[in-house]
Specification:
The chain is mainly α and 284 residues long. It has one domain. The chain is 73% helix and 0% strand. It contains eight helices and no strands. The N terminus is likely disordered.
Length: 284
Amino acid sequence: MAAAQGQGPTAGEYIVHHLQHLQNQKQTGVVDFSVFNLDSMFYAIALGIVGCFVLYRAASRATSGVPGRFQAAVELLVEMVDSQAKGIVHSAASRKLVAPLALTVFVWIFLMNAMDLLPVDLLPAIWHVAGPAMGAPDYMRVVPTADLSVTMGLSLSVLLICLFYNIKIKGLGGWIHELFSAPFGDKWFLYPINFAMQMIEFVAKTVSHGMRLFGNMYAGELIFMLIALMGGAWSLSATGIGLAIGHVIAGSVWAIFHILIITLQAFVFMMLTLVYVGQAHDAH
């Protein structure tokens, strides 16, 4: 991290450093598909494994008697997701895949969002020692959903699932016909306009789906960094002690409020997934 000689980093340097990803190589342009954010990939995969393990443990330990707290919590979550799926996706056959998919999406995104509740400098400080020792850059971001490549990857996956159900439910010919005949009618002179509107709809839904999650989590991450700067600026003075106290109070309040945000964003992403898949079952 850049810093003046004998001094710590400035506020700008601190934030810029914390917004850098651990990558496999230096990016050479605005878009470089050979560059991977290794930190986002690691935490996303690790948390996906954790989420699958939690759900597996709940299923393997389920009993028909009085459930324990863990089983009861998971059952409430499953029933909530299943009821939402039934209200949106009316095909019972499709719900056998879509409902577990929605549950997985909710749990996975919630866990990735929850990484924002860890102290800002905890894991980066550990990597500050371990990374350079292994010859790796001293960069580490721990919130995968604050990485646009992750959220857009999730939304693109939802798009592919929607395309699959469009073809499965309507048939390839029926779906192609719908692309050219909706929303303005099956008239040959309206085919270009209909097709353009359909493409705009697919692109808009996909981009907004990923950007909504990214924007909220990125903003939350920045606020935690600003609060951390308050604590880093404390000193043995009235102003410094006030900053330290403000750091504790602001951090606690924002963390409590952020629990609602990370849960809400996971729920919204799951609901939009169900809505988009449900739309794929309906004809225009």
